[in-house]
Structures are given as C-alpha cells and as structure tokens.
Design a protein that fits this description.
Layout: E1 7-11, H1 16-27, E2 31-36, E3 49-53, H2 62-72, E4 78-81, H3 96-123, E5 127-132, H4 145-164, E6 170-177, E7 190-192, H5 202-213, E8 223-226, E9 233-235
Parallel strand pairs: 1-2, 1-4, 2-3, 4-5, 5-6, 6-8
Antiparallel strand pairs: 7-9
Helix pairs in contact: 1-5, 2-3, 3-4
The protein binds NADP nicotinamide-adenine-dinucleotide phosphate (NAP).
Length: 242
C-alpha cells in the first residue's frame, strides 16, 4: 500500500467483502467512509472510519444523499462499489418488482455512486474506482438470469468508464470473485463447500484491492478474476457437487 493516506468511500461496508476491505484500509492508516443500511454489527472506534446509513434500493433519494456526502468529504479519492446481493431462481419465479429491485441494487445504484463522484475524482492527480463484479459477470448460468445481467452490466459499465477516464488520473478496475464465504449465502439454498480450498475469504478480495490501490501511477489493473482452488457448491439440503 502506498504511504499516501487515501480517503476511500466503500459501498456495502457493513459486512462480508466490503467490511474486510474497510478493516484492511483502516489498518493501513487510510480514511474510510462506509455506506450500507446497518452498521450495528460493525464495532469500530477508529476515528478514521465514518459509517453512513443509506439504502441503495431507494434510487430516487440517492442523488441528493450522494451529493451531501461528496460535499462533506471533498478529499475522497477512491470509490469501492461493493454493495449488492444474490438472488437466484428460474426467471418465471421472479416477480417484475424483484427484477427491477435486483438491477437497481446491484447495478443502477452503483452507477449512481460513480456518477456522483466522477467529476471530483477526475480532478484528482491520482484516483481509483474499483467495482466488485463476480464470476457471474463472465458467464451466464442457470437460475442466474437477473444476477448475471446485473453483474454483466456492472462490468460493461466499468470497462467503458475505464476507457472514458484514460486521459485523467482516474483508474477504473473491476474484481470478479468466485464464491466468497460471507452472509451473501445466508438466505440462499446453496453455499460454498467448507474446505479452505472450496471458497475465497473476504480478506482475499481486500488484498486484491490493496494491490490495485498501490499499483504504479500510469498503470491500470483493468480486471482481476480470482477463484477458490477447488470450487465446491453445496446445496443446503443435498450432497456436495464438484
Ligand atoms: N459472496 C460471494 O460469493 C460473492 C462472489 C462474487 C461477488 N460478490 C459480490 O460482492 C458484494 C458483497 O457481497 P458479500 O459477499 O460481502 O455479501 P454480504 O456480506 O451480504 O454484504 C453485502 C453488503 O451490501 C450491503 N447492502 C445490501 N443491500 C443493500 C441496500 N439495499 N442498501 C445499502 N447496502 C446494501 C450490505 O449492507 P446492509 O445489509 O447493512 O445494508 C452489505 O454491506 C456483492 O456485490 C456481491 O454480489 C459476492
């Protein structure tokens, strides 16, 4: 990690991957503005951490709230867009509202965050946006129509924004993890296998973020895919499948 103190806004900072990234940046002495709905399980008295409660599913209220955060923290020089959730099933089992809501949370709200901060970030000598995509951004698979679509959208957005930002000091990257052991699976009917090689851990993604943030100015790590060595999916009421 570079010695310069970064001021990073992280969406989805209250748990899982976003929380691990937050803790790793705080430990390295950086300042973090964390956005999520509920920080009651996040115990930190670090004065460099600023948790802010926000609901990304309420798109209409976002522009004003994001503008206020931008005004309060003008030194923000990096965004990590991590908020999101998994919802899987055959398309016919999704209501029209559920389709709209999943796209709003996983894609549109994160595009709003980028939109709100991009003018400030482009003015900085050095700045970063890192999106947390998914293996689902790389290939569609059954029961993943809407989740895959939301992550493909995020990846296309990241690639286009990376190109659009090439003449500024802003680097845009996307990390596409395979299965990471987090609360993501708590309401799903499947989860990664228990063995350490069956899943990633949130700290793996935090390390990847540190690598991107500390890369030499003038280089961009466009995209990183990372996966467990031996991916195992287990269905909560069935036997493991390799
Ligand atoms: N776990 C995996 O296997 C995996 C793999 C690839 C990619 N990902 C992606 O990684 C990201 C983080 O997932 P995770 O595994 O860390 O799961 P997680 O532990 O469930 O974390 C999800 C985060 O998103 C926030 N969030 C959810 N709904 C929100 C809303 N309406 N408004 C504001 N914040 C909201 C949550 O905060 P609150 O609940 O406090 O609002 C939480 O901080 C997601 O985008 C996910 O798609 C996960």
């Amino acid at each position: 990690m570079s010695q310069i103190r970064r001021v990073t806004l992280i969406t989805g900072a209250s748990s899982g991957i976003g929380k691990a990234i937050t803790l790793s940046l705080l430990q390295a002495g950086h300042e973090v503005i964390g956005l999520a709905r509920d920080f009651s399980q996040f115990n930190s008295d670090n004065t460099l951490f600023h948790p802010i409660s926000i609901d990304f599913s309420k798109l209409g209220a976002l522009p004003e709230k994001l503008q206020a955060i931008n005004k309060r923290f003008p030194a923000i020089d990096s965004l990590i867009c991590c908020a999101g959730k998994g919802q899987f099933g055959s398309l016919e089992n999704f209501s029209y509202d559920q389709i709209e809501q999943l796209m709003a949370l996983n894609f549109t709200s994160q595009a709003f965050v980028a939109r709100a901060f991009i003018p400030t970030l482009k003015q900085k000598e050095r700045s970063n946006i890192i999106f947390i995509g998914s293996e689902a951004a790389l290939a569609g698979s059954r029961k993943g129509t809407i989740y895959c679509a939301s992550k493909f959208a995020l990846r296309g957005f990241a690639q286009a924004l990376r190109d659009e930002s090439a003449r500024s000091g802003l680097s845009v990257s996307i990390i596409n993890p395979g299965m990471v052991k987090t609360n993501f699976f708590s309401e799903l009917d499947f989860e990664p296998g228990e063995e350490p090689s069956n899943h990633l851990i949130p700290e793996d993604i935090a390390e990847t973020v540190s690598l991107i943030l500390s890369s030499r100015a003038g280089t961009v790590i466009d995209e990183i895919n990372l996966n467990p060595q031996n991916r195992v999916v287990q269905f909560k009421n069935r036997k493991p499948k390799n």
